[in-house]
Amino acid sequence: MAMQRSTHFDESGQAQMVDVTAKSITARTATATAVVSMNAQAAQSIRQGDSRKGDVLAVARLAAITGTKWTSTLIPLCHAIPIEGVEVGFQWLDEPAAPSTEGTTPTSLLRCTATVKTTYKTGVEMEAMTAASVAALTIYDMLKSVDRSMEIRQTRLEHKDGGKSGLFQR
Amino acid sequence: MAMQRSTHFDESGQAQMVDVTAKSITARTATATAVVSMNAQAAQSIRQGDSRKGDVLAVARLAAITGTKWTSTLIPLCHAIPIEGVEVGFQWLDEPAAPSTEGTTPTSLLRCTATVKTTYKTGVEMEAMTAASVAALTIYDMLKSVDRSMEIRQTRLEHKDGGKSGLFQR
Amino acid sequence: MAMQRSTHFDESGQAQMVDVTAKSITARTATATAVVSMNAQAAQSIRQGDSRKGDVLAVARLAAITGTKWTSTLIPLCHAIPIEGVEVGFQWLDEPAAPSTEGTTPTSLLRCTATVKTTYKTGVEMEAMTAASVAALTIYDMLKSVDRSMEIRQTRLEHKDGGKSGLFQR
Amino acid sequence: MAMQRSTHFDESGQAQMVDVTAKSITARTATATAVVSMNAQAAQSIRQGDSRKGDVLAVARLAAITGTKWTSTLIPLCHAIPIEGVEVGFQWLDEPAAPSTEGTTPTSLLRCTATVKTTYKTGVEMEAMTAASVAALTIYDMLKSVDRSMEIRQTRLEHKDGGKSGLFQR
Amino acid sequence: MAMQRSTHFDESGQAQMVDVTAKSITARTATATAVVSMNAQAAQSIRQGDSRKGDVLAVARLAAITGTKWTSTLIPLCHAIPIEGVEVGFQWLDEPAAPSTEGTTPTSLLRCTATVKTTYKTGVEMEAMTAASVAALTIYDMLKSVDRSMEIRQTRLEHKDGGKSGLFQR
Amino acid sequence: MAMQRSTHFDESGQAQMVDVTAKSITARTATATAVVSMNAQAAQSIRQGDSRKGDVLAVARLAAITGTKWTSTLIPLCHAIPIEGVEVGFQWLDEPAAPSTEGTTPTSLLRCTATVKTTYKTGVEMEAMTAASVAALTIYDMLKSVDRSMEIRQTRLEHKDGGKSGLFQR
């Protein structure tokens, strides 16, 4: 099998920010999700945000949107990309997307979905992945006093389009 | 069951940065992990970093260390904490820590572990969680051209000590 | 009258970050306010946030809290201060705190109040002033498509205590 | 009256970064002002900057210019915009632009004016507003040891042109 | 001799961010170098990085790449530029590029070279100069416990092309 | 000769942020300098700053002061340190501190000196080195349109005291 090299290293194996000078400027979209597992008490605390006892998801949504702006700060070899739109949503999963890894009682699962758009020479997968991660981390932060065992599961790219590598759809 | 409120909201449900003025300054430690699943080609690409074909883990380790410094930027209600030490390690898991969620063929699993220390009024759980997440996101970034289906699984707190809430050990 | 010199300049008039090495670490609090004037339509849009048509004040509150963390980035000679607590509130003023400066019809006035706490060698007036300003700027940003003529009026320190200069109360 | 919705919320009232993908790239300019009121001693301290006893306005000007670069960090739903030019000026107002709100003796009024330019899909009103605010906050910071009662008054947009919404002139 | 004015000041001598609105978008490249002098022990410590006793140059390379993203934060009147590619290399100089300034025994000299690319209205000289400086500062940081007398010498632009001012080659 | 290991790597050669938990909090000072060489025209342009044709050194001084706050962002393994005071000065050198490296005609030499203070567990050498570097880079930026061949020479630590390693004086 011919070895495929990550484009983030040059021929001698040194890290570089990939030269995108010659790439085409095209419209690009990426969507990523992160799933947070939590106990019943934490889930109840979030749901009550609707009744204004503290809106965890409003905070997490804002954190995710602003998180997209920090992607190139966090990920060393990322280009800074002009982000043209961000949407963040949340959905309770009736059935676990990922089985509990320790045989414990079932937990509530909340999925964070972030969609990011740009018109640039390189894509926004990392911005979407970072947004979903930051949403999940913020939820953990706000509820860790209620359930310190919360886990972030299955952070992953769901969709991307635009650019030379074309469509990716899970 | 009496409802437990997240401390990040005041009595009327408004977000706040929790007042820690009166808390004691104590030594605190937190450890978090994130597990990345990837296909064989991506795993091979990382392992070859040892032979200087591009050291993915060295980049991810640095990203995780510097990521701890951005925690209070990413997480809206986090205090900025004087971080006094960070260690980041990686370990290949022979057996999957999390079963594949879609019945696909087994994948390689790499665990990122971040330990953060401070001497302050509040703990570094979020710094450790952020470091582990950034390590995993950086690995995804560097290898997404090889395997765009990589997933980050099971980001979670493993250990914390110090402070009023005391020891947490999974 | 003997001329009083700003402490941010040395004897030859050069800017400096004031040396606070020898100052005492004490608990300090500061409160600042900013008043935003707007037309009836913009005011209605904010009030409807309570009924979940878009919660402008939740966004402004978070922006103000995170804004405190950027104070020493924005204000060149400010020290970076360990912020230990932030509260942000909003209040509609029945009677204008500041008369309209152009003889136009009366507008609605919304007051943003930010209180910041630290235990450090220097105070948090600038953090409170910045938080109130950022709250007001965020409100302007979110409603400028409704009323581009909105104004921020009367951003000022209301209260400070702690430190050598002692209590300030308007 | 049909309710006008802020574009920063989607149809269900959730915050978003507005999608500007389809907007035209055009030259855009925005000018904003902030007025600072201060006592005679503080005003004298600034004026003496000309004679090199400490140049408050040079510091405030630089803070305002660099402040434009932090706009999308401070204002959660702002796009990061490629800023192509910034000018900052100061003018003493012989007659108060805003009457004192508390019946106190007349104060000196200094107006900070910031003009920002871009060629992009969305405008630079917030960059101009932020620059004017940061100039005023920096002046407050440098002279608060001389006059802690200084106020920032009447931060507002004076002019914008370019883009779909066209010309705004006060 | 007619006096040439820096473009960073307007006609009255006030600092400004130069208006580049009307400039052409062209491909631009810049290369800068910094030379670090160190004693034999520090040099040995770096060379052993190849044998995985701690890879100083891998850390310095990453710091230089990410340093390019901070240029407009560090340099007050710099425009934020969309960086499209960064390469960083290191070379041991057999013969000193700069003679020791104090008549001490010869030291080892290591040259850091950074090349930055953009397609924009203004050039990336400052990004290349900043990258080379940050590489050198990082090397100093990592080895100052071994040789606190290390010096950074001869940071300078080696090459630039693109834009109205055309080619510069040392 | 027994090999001395940089403290920024652990025993297996992996980068880490050094654990300073157990170190004593003491007053610490560091002073660093950077020397900029330039042609006569550039030097004249700076000197005329005194007569208000554009004050290059005022901009460079502010950039250096704010640069100290970015040190831990730029240098990956640096701790974020509470900076308690910064002074930045400039001095023309009548005689070159560093001989021209290319046999060209003598140039003017300007020395930037930065002194930084803290009371913390680790020192501020890197903050002083970064401040001196940023001052020099800013001077280059502002005058590169006048003399693109300017060089930064001899950035180095001049003095440090406080902490376990004690006094360093060149």
TrEMBL record, chains A, B, C, D, E, F:
Say which domain of life the source belongs to. Answer: Bacteria
Write the Enzyme Commission number(s) for this entry: 4.6.1.17
Tell me which Pfam families the record gives: MoaC (PF01967)
Q: Which residues form the signal peptide?
A: none
Q: Which Gene3D superfamilies has this protein been placed in? A: Molybdopterin cofactor biosynthesis C (MoaC) domain (3.30.70.640)
> Which InterPro entries does the UniProt entry name for this protein?
MoaC, MoaC_bact/euk, MoaC_sf, MoCo_biosynth_MoaA/MoaC, Mopterin_CF_biosynth-C_dom
Which terms are listed as keywords in the entry?
Answer: Lyase, Molybdenum cofactor biosynthesis
Q: Pathway listed for it?
A: Cofactor biosynthesis; molybdopterin biosynthesis
User: Which reaction(s) does its UniProt entry say it catalyses?
Assistant: (8S)-3',8-cyclo-7,8-dihydroguanosine 5'-triphosphate = cyclic pyranopterin phosphate + diphosphate
Domain Molybdopterin cofactor biosynthesis C (MoaC) residue range list: 17-163
Q: What class of enzyme is it?
A: lyase
Q: Does the keyword Lyase apply?
A: yes
List the NCBIfam families hit by this protein, alphabetically: moaC, PRK09364.1
Stated role: Catalyzes the conversion of (8S)-3',8-cyclo-7,8-dihydroguanosine 5'-triphosphate to cyclic pyranopterin monophosphate (cPMP).
Report the protein name in the record. cyclic pyranopterin monophosphate synthase
